[in-house]
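Re: weekly structure request thread

Next one in the queue (179 aa):
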Amino acid sequence: MIFDFTQKKMDLIKYNKDSWLTSPHFSITLKKNILKKRMKLVESWIHGQEMCGVSFCDFFVMKDICQKFFPEKIITDVLSFNSSPTFTDNSIETDRDHKYLGDIIICLPYCLWFLRNKKTSLSSHLERLIIHGMIHLKGFDHERSSSAYKIMHHLETQIFKELNHIYGEENWITCKTHS
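Done, posted below.
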């Protein structure tokens, strides 16, 4: 699996009744080795010999992506984009045994906003989103029908439970707000 995770400063998003507002900056620190270990296991269950990229973005990038590709959405927490059959990118190292499926883009500020009153850790929430994106890259789409939603949700839940059964819950990301 390819990860495009770096320490970045992004705008933390706060929501009020009227609009999305930007507020203080924050920085993220990732324990890439822990995340890679966990996601490699998930990838083996879902993809087998296939790879995908995962990137974090800020609110403004996600909003631009949504406007370009999904005009009906204002913003979302995660999107996945399948690679085209003619995909070639020398910057991504793959070998002949692996196929590049596509990219998962996660809006970190949106996730932080979503978790503000929840007891779920950021690491757990992001793992669920990555799993969600991986399943989309394999062709599942929860928006097709209610039965497709139930199947995809069940698959995500089972994978997440099994991951935590094998490795336990680990905190591989920390966020620090700056004033």
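The CA atoms of residues 20 and 60 lie 10 Å apart. The chain has five helices and seven strands.
Next request, please.
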